[in-house]
Amino acid sequence: MPNLLLLTLLAAFPAxxxxxxxxxxxxxxxxxxxxxxxxxxxxxxxxxTFSLLLLVHGPLSDRFGRxxxxxxxxxxxxxxxxxxxxxxxxxTLVLARMVQATGAAxxxxxxxxxxxxxxEGKERQKVLAYIGVILPLCPMVAPMLGGIMLxxxxxxxxxxxxxxxxxxxxxxxxxxxxxxxxxxxxxxxxVLRRYKVLLGNRDYLxxxxxxxxxxxxxxxxxxxxxxxxxxxxxxxxxxxxxxxxFNALCMMAGSLLCSRLCVGYSSFSILVFAxxxxxAGGIGMVWTxxxxxxxxxxxxxxxxxxxxxxxxxSNNMVLEQVDKDVGAASALLxxxxxICGALAMxxxxxDWRSKAFVIGVLAVFGSMLPLLxxxxxxxxxxxxxxx
Length: 387
Description:
Blueprint: H1 3-11, H2 13-16, H3 25-32, H4 36-39, H5 41-64, H6 66-85, H7 90-118, H8 121-134, H9 137-152, H10 156-175, H11 188-192, H12 194-199, H13 202-211, H14 216-232, H15 237-264, H16 267-288, H17 293-319, H18 326-348, H19 355-386
GO cellular component, one term: plasma membrane
Family: Belongs to the major facilitator superfamily. Bcr/CmlA family.
GO molecular function, one term: xenobiotic transmembrane transporter activity
């Protein structure tokens, strides 16, 4: 399996295990007679578990190698999928999703670490952009597949199909040649102490904190989209899949543009442009408050486009700040990214008068704060160079 395809598949594990399942949330609410916040626990707890386990898998891969950690993680993911398919209550489903999240964390953390191991500089940025082009296919196609399965089969087959798809990742991990990198030493506690070294890296920490809040609005959209489109606007699961897929298409277009722009333009200029565009989309969402399906879909599409444009550059900027402890650095970055997403999912689950308005507010703050931080960091870097 080509490295680019494997990295894309590994990066897709969180979306694979979430987006296909989204159309089933209203169905589970009816079957188990539960509220939306209760149903969304299967999303929130998943991302919380996923985020915490990232911090374990990353440094373990620095100590023991990428392949063993990756293979074990994918096997856990497959086991979690089968347990989800057998769940008979929201409690058992949440517990099964925790197993699934444990495995997905290994795949997601190591996708960035392997990108750092296998590629350098501009080539790495282009690879991350190409992954960003392919990756949105998952959230674009997955809800539609989930909707089709709900129409003709039980919701349980959604999780069975996820386990089957994960077998391709397991095959790729077995075929992968272990990258050469400087490994850490010591036991588990010594491995985990490497985070102290990372937290002392001022530039790495600054960029991580600046970029982790950007996609909070998109996570809120993931958690609330089925409620907004299916319950709020009365759409079918299949139509919802098409509307959801539009946002994934916009994100794909943003990443495709990034792969073209990164050749002739500076990363800083592209990132500032992307954050400004995301801010404009957030203001549009706040202004319209998603009054109609189109007025919700269009500003969300703008936000998704500029999130797709910014992610490859922001990830590459963070990775460029480290030469050692790459697994831990990748894990901490992904942890910060998803823990902000989990908090956004909790926030959007409350009974807001307009969930679209809340998503717009998250987009405004999720673009404005990183924009100010990036401008400040760039100004500081220039002063240090001049001094």
